[in-house]
Amino acid sequence: MRPLRACLGAAAAVALAAAGTTALVTTSASGATNALSDRWYAAAPYLMPTDNDPPDAAAIMDATGLKAFQLAFVLAPNGGGCSPTWGDSSPVSSDTAVQSVVSTIRAKGGDVSVSIGGYGGTKLGQACADPAATAAAYQQVITKYGLHAIDFDLEEPEYENSAAIRNEIGAAKILQQNNPGLYVSVTTAGTADGTGWFGKQMLLEAKSQGFTPNNFSIMPFDGGFNGAASQTAALTDFNSILRSTFGWDQATAYAHEGFSGMNGRSDTGEYFSQADFQTMLDYATGHHMDRFTFWSLNRDRQCTPADNGGRTSGTCSSVAQNSWDFAKYSVKFAGVTPPTTTPTPTPTPTPPPGTSCKTAWSSAAVYTKDNEVSYGKHNWKAKWWTQNEVPGASEWGPWQDEGAC
Fold first, then answer.
1. Is the N or C terminus of the chain more exposed, i.e. has fewer CB atoms within 10 Å?
2. What is the 3-state secondary structure (H, E, C) of the chain?
């Protein structure tokens, strides 16, 4: 997914009334029989089960009514090779830690999807020779955990590698064919106009291979976004991209579109509150979108001073909240009413006293080292010569965030 996620942690159908969609029934490797509707897999928030101070999944289920979790991330081994690992170091073949989390969730009537890829690290699409080999590696994950759903999180640096993306999309198509009913999501970076050049190339690769997942999801954060209005605008633009790429009408495109947000403070200092999530939920359900998820449950709790509240953290949101506030929006997307708790209002982040905004950033202006501008209610300082590069659009870009103004 985004930079923080990389650096901080490294299938008989039944009708379910809650969402009214077809569910899968399998006996998993953990010995549990599970049945969830696709809507639950579409609503599953991301959870790192072994990193970023993993919360108790059972406690989250009890507090919110959540049933599905998106476990992250499966990568290629750090030492090289085409075999699946958790976080590039723990082989899936010998895993017991994640299996224990899966068993706990299933024992309470829930289920999991597994996300592959994410931001940073070596992905199996990069390490494996071809789509068939890549699919064989992922099939080990599906078989090990008896999966009903899988997420392909395709972003930097992998999505800049056309051969790797060809392997990933080809593998997804093979898995879809070999595991009837498997719910497949494809997640990629979001930009103000929907998704960037590499995201569009990924869509063209899917079109060329004749592959259609349940959804293509974008992550509209870490790219100069400012609350829900900018996110809904990006989703609207992404809908147009899907229509022009696949020849779909608007409704069909929305039915194959997903939203993947970031709760609280993003890597680049954007803030997304509970109110923003409500707006995004309304947009997703109002347009009959296929998916609504977020990064991450590890962050769905309020920071303490020791957690560096006010900075982006992998273990808390840096906004005022009750624990698992954001998970409840996923529950609502699945069509279930979560338990009622007294909400905690999320205040607008305030800058230190006397911090005024510098002259507004201009796409036409040329800036040199130490020039200061304001953008998105933050002041920014240029690290080197730059022109038409949006402050905060890239963690390694030319702008240094000096804080709110």
1. C
2. CCHHHHHCCCCCCCECCCCCCEEEEEECCCCCEEEEEHHHHHHCCEECCCCCCCCCHHHHHHHHCCCEEEEEEEECCCCCCCCCEECCCEEHHHCCHHHHHHHHHHHCCCEEEEEEECCCCCCHHHHCCCHHHHHHHHHHHHHHHCCCEEEEECCCCHHHCHHHHHHHHHHHHHHHHHCCCCEEEEEEECECCECCHHHHHHHHHHHHHCCCCCEEEEECCCCCCCCHHHHHHHHHHHHHHHHHHHCCCHHHHHHCEEEEEECEECCCCCEECHHHHHHHHHHHHHCCCCEEEEECHHHCCCCCHHHCCCCCCCCCCCCCCCCCCCHHHHHHHCCCCCCCCCCCCCCCCCCCCCCCCCCECCCCCEECCCCEEEECCEEEEECCCEECCCCCCCCCCCEEEEEEC
